[in-house]
Design a protein that fits this description.
DNA-binding, 344 residues, 13 helices, Rossmann fold, four-stranded parallel beta sheet, six-stranded parallel beta sheet, homodimer
Chain lengths: 344, 344
DNA sequence: AGAACGGAGCAAACCGGTTTGACTGCTCTC
DNA sequence: GAGAGCAGTCAAACCGGTTTGCTCCGTTCT
């Protein structure tokens, strides 16, 4: 019983052929007689044999695994609904391709480097880079380590982008523009923005898009607060904004968690939402639809992005097209959290 | 100069020793002269050599990786804040031990079985079983596949537990009891419970604890609704409870997301929280502290549980103690969402 | 009829580590 | 001074697959 798993040699013996033939019967890299193939498969099945992936990895130098390093503080990982959805999307694609996903959550830059080095030591074939920053060091790092990679971004890659890493991106700017348009149409002129950490490309993209949208309406974009995507920072930023003598009548938050915390804080000071203050979020978590009022947000299809990122990485691993790809899934979802501003 | 990574043979040559000596210098399984060891390390460093984990895995039949299969619908994964925190906790321990974490998100039972079979084919050494159900088939499955495992639970393992899998558990019952005590002390007598899917051991544990607590106060435990942990189910369950002619004055939810959705729904019908209705959650997500009113909840230390689960699994892999371990980190956090019931 | 060709399969080398039996000096004992 | 014991090292076997050079055989072409 149990003990050790059968090896390809056991299967070969049972089928009366050589190891090489068993391997070829499965890979099809050379013709194998139909009848032989059947004998091999039958033998494998009765022995319940599956190829050892360690041995396969050693022989082919491909691990059938891709890696994902998440470098964020635990509080943020805990509340941000992006990661789980993104990972679920990846998985759907990877599982179909027989690939595995290796995950690492790191706290420091050294840990991050160490994680990529372990990856390169024959643990994964490629990686997906999340939370890209301006002048991110990782594309260079992973290339030097010999890992294929794909980056996620919130804007089209610039022509002068220094790397040849394929980019999977959304166009967050357009969605932010739409949100601002909605608010301006409702009559708002004093609109604030609470961004994520601006070192992130995605946070900066939304931040810049907000400024551009306000400017295009000839409104001042001077109420800008940098948050960090946590509920706590959403509350603090909101407190600061509402404290001013001429408080804004609407706040555009860079994610839902900050928006919900901000909304709650505003209410606790006696303001009504949306009558006295309109708020919008970003990323449309499931909870947002079930609040009262519902939170106006931007659905970005995190799972789709995960799937596309995985697909793109698999293609890159096959040596195919390195082109960047736009994931066009951002949809503004209007709910009860916005309304015309109060009369002065 | 990319090309191929150096091998142990290159290091051996550079240091003027044999492959075996290099290996022994690193593993220390046999004595190696101090001076030789230094030469080997120096050579390895200058060649930037790291052992190939595929080769290591093949030679030792240990992969230095553990696996985690998450079998939940994407909506739930997206909102539940438990997984990310749990994983971050695991990772902290695993990284320190040089182990990797392989993650799989599956949609069906076949996919789940397939995932464990891939694991067993030399991808991971052991697995952590989450969301254990009554009569769960996985302990048996993974044992047959030759994988070491650890289970997470919300109650002490019964004596007659059919398996010898170590269990890492919290005692959710005590926390639920405390919540009920708080509400009863405030004068509530009509308290409802919205549970998670009762096939899960953790959901059932909280559900049963609720009934026991109510009974011990000689109150009827007859307002029980089974939800599924999503915001949508929290709202629906709440709608059903509040629709009754004698609506409850307090609702104990099995997680925060359902509680927040329920709270929002109640408000949208004109009820005030906590004046007209008290609500409590479970798992204490970061957001809960920043709502207004803050959500009374139970902090369960998901990250600590992750760390302990990882530690326990590593111990099991070393062949050490299979004992079950209690993670004593549940703390009831009282916030503004509960208050005495309205006078009739 | 002989050459050329391609399908089928075997045996052996290889991937990059780990493990172990055997050998060499050396020191320590009696 | 012979034997025991041990630190230190090497060479070779091994882990379980994949890949390739070569042989064997039957068919087709000229």
């Amino acid at each position: 019983m149990a003990g050790s798993r059968p090896t390809i040699g056991d299967v070969a013996r049972a089928a009366g052929v050589s190891k090489g033939t068993v391997s070829l019967a499965y890979s099809g890299k050379r013709p194998v007689a139909e009848e032989t193939r059947r004998r091999v498969f039958a033998a494998a099945e009765s022995l319940r044999w599956t190829a050892s992936s360690s041995a396969q990895a050693l022989a082919t130098s491909r691990t059938s695994t891709i890696g994902l390093v998440i470098a964020r503080r635990p509080e943020i990982i805990a509340t941000d609904t992006f990661f789980p959805r993104f990972i679920a999307g990846c998985e759907a694609v990877l599982a179909r391709a027989g690939m595995g996903l290796m995950l690492n959550v790191v706290a420091s830059e050294e840990d991050e480097t160490a994680a990529y080095e372990r990856y390169a030591a024959g643990r994964v074939d490629g990686v997906i880079l999340l939370d890209v920053q301006q002048g991110d060091r990782r594309p260079k790092l992973v290339r030097e380590l010999g890992l294929t990679s794909v980056m996620l971004s919130a804007e089209a890659p610039r022509d002068d982008s220094p790397t040849d890493v394929p980019v999977v991106y959304t166009e967050d700017a357009a969605a932010i523009g739409e949100l601002v348009d909605l608010l301006v149409e409702d009559g708002h002129t004093s609109i604030a923005h609470v961004s994520g950490p601006l070192r992130y490309v995605h946070a900066a993209a939304r931040h810049n898009a907000f400024i551009a949208a306000m400017t295009s309406h000839e409104l001042p974009a001077d109420r800008l607060v940098e948050g960090d995507f946590t509920a706590a920072s959403g509350r603090d930023a909101t407190a600061g904004l509402l404290d001013a003598s001429d408080r804004p009548t609407a706040i555009v938050y860079a994610n839902d968690v900050m928006a919900i915390a901000g909304l709650s804080f505003a209410r606790s000071t006696g303001l009504r939402v949306p009558e006295d203050l309109s708020v919008t979020g970003f990323d449309d978590s499931e909870l947002s639809a079930h609040l009262s009022p519902g939170l106006t947000s931007v659905s970005t299809g995190a799972d789709v992005r995960g799937a596309v990122a995985a697909d793109t990485l698999l293609a890159a691993l096959r040596g195919e097209a390195d082109a960047s790809v736009l994931v066009d899934g951002t949809v503004v979802v209007r709910r009860g959290s916005i309304a015309p501003p109060p009369r002065p």
